[in-house]
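Revision sheet: structure tokens.
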Amino acid sequence: MKNIFTFVLLISLSGVLFGQNNPSDKRNNFEEWSKELNLTESQEKEIRLIQEKFQLESETLRQSGDLEKAKSLQERQQIEIDAVLTSEQINKAKLIKERKIRENKKKAASQSAVR
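Predicted:
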């Protein structure tokens, strides 16, 4: 779960760091992830608060382009989010992350073939 959420978070942060910050896409990704993990309403609220807490710092890092600090920020955020999840949810999130990685690799390969 930790790894999956880290991946989801990395994707979210990469969008912020590279100026592709589309709030509706992030909301849909969170909602999909939340549904797959069967988060409670309380867990959703806690995780959203954690994300908001780290948002300002993330925006600052986007402007500076400091990827090392972005990774550190991501790790700190992940630790706080993992504290909200159950062990079952953490394991399921790992599976989701692995699936997303495979999907992204497949998507990148097909885009490369088109070029």
